[in-house]
Amino acid sequence: MATLELDTVTKVYQESDDRIVAVDGISLSIDDGEFLVVVGPSGCGKSTMLRMVAGLESITDGVIRLDGQVINNVKSQDRDIAMVFQSYALYPHMTVEGNMSFGLEESTDMPDSEIASRVGDTAEMLDIAELLNRKPGELSGGQQQRVALGRAIVRDPKVFLMDEPLSNLDAKLRSQMRTELQRLQEELGVTTVYVTHDQTEAMTMGDRIAILNDGELQQVATPLEAYHEP
Ligand code: ADP
Ligand code: ADP
């Protein structure tokens, strides 16, 4: 169960004499279990918005709420929000199993046996159970992306944030992973914010689409409304 609310959220970067308003007063409410796709041109503030929700970037102004609680000052690891990056960001020296269990070991007092069982179940679900003892460098891009997803899923977070998670994959794999992500979303029902520049992903995956431009929210609409306007 998780609703996520952005209330006039703003991010200003100060670069010597330049003020860059990366996110400009965005207000947006994401329902429990909703899959929201965020689209917009490069540099419009998509990643900055996600990073603020994840707690990886400070918020200049405005409020972010998770289930009604203000999380502006909650540390990233305490937010119950998992982020998947375009670059996978796996630890190269750790095995797949290590990558998937690390977060749980660090931020919970879950017993090792339960961590192992969760990692096993998640690996089965993502079809990477046979890779648990490998290192990321020995895996294909698609396999690495599954591990990155697994690392997020295994934490059983309230919210998934995904920043162009499929854009490093070739077209065939991308379409396969798209289908798989939809299946996972239906199965897990986790509130998801998914950034992409791929129109097919936006049209087929989202319950709603948020269109950003120059740091501002232009429109929030269903795929049908967003792409089939007269
Ligand atoms: P998108 O994800 O839509 O491509 P970003 O959120 O990465 O957009 O960037 C939004 C704007 O903020 C851009 O103008 C970008 O150059 C700027 N920006 C992003 N990160 C930083 C940073 N760490 N320092 C300064 N400016 C940044
Ligand atoms: P994306 O388009 O996926 O946001 P970017 O290449 O824009 O990726 O950003 C990658 C990293 O570079 C981010 O950590 C962001 O904060 C940083 N960054 C982006 N734009 C700037 C900028 N103008 N000045 C400083 N850092 C930036």
TrEMBL record:
Record's keyword terms, sorted: ATP-binding, Cell membrane, Membrane, Nucleotide-binding, Translocase, Transport
Catalytic activity: L-arabinose(out) + ATP + H2O = L-arabinose(in) + ADP + phosphate + H(+); D-xylose(out) + ATP + H2O = D-xylose(in) + ADP + phosphate + H(+)
GO cellular component: ATP-binding cassette (ABC) transporter complex, substrate-binding subunit-containing
Location within or outside the cell: Cell membrane
GO molecular function: ABC-type transporter activity; ATP binding; ATP hydrolysis activity
Record-annotated ABC transporter domain positions: 4-230
Organism: Haloferax mucosum ATCC BAA-1512
Chief site of localization: membrane
Top-level taxon: Archaea
Similarity comment text for this entry: Belongs to the ABC transporter superfamily. Carbohydrate uptake transporter-1 (CUT1) (TC 3.A.1.1) family.
Oligomer status and interactors: The complex is composed of two ATP-binding proteins (XacJ and XacK), two transmembrane proteins (XacH and XacI) and a solute-binding protein (XacG).
Keyword RNA-binding among record annotations: no
Protein role: Part of the ABC transporter complex XacGHIJK involved in the uptake of xylose and arabinose. Responsible for energy coupling to the transport system.
GO terms for biological process, alphabetical: carbohydrate transport
Record's bilayer topology term: Peripheral membrane protein
Part of the full-length chain shown: 1 to 230 of 379
Principal EC category: translocase
Protein known as: ABC-type D-xylose/L-arabinose transporter
Documented EC number(s): 7.5.2.13
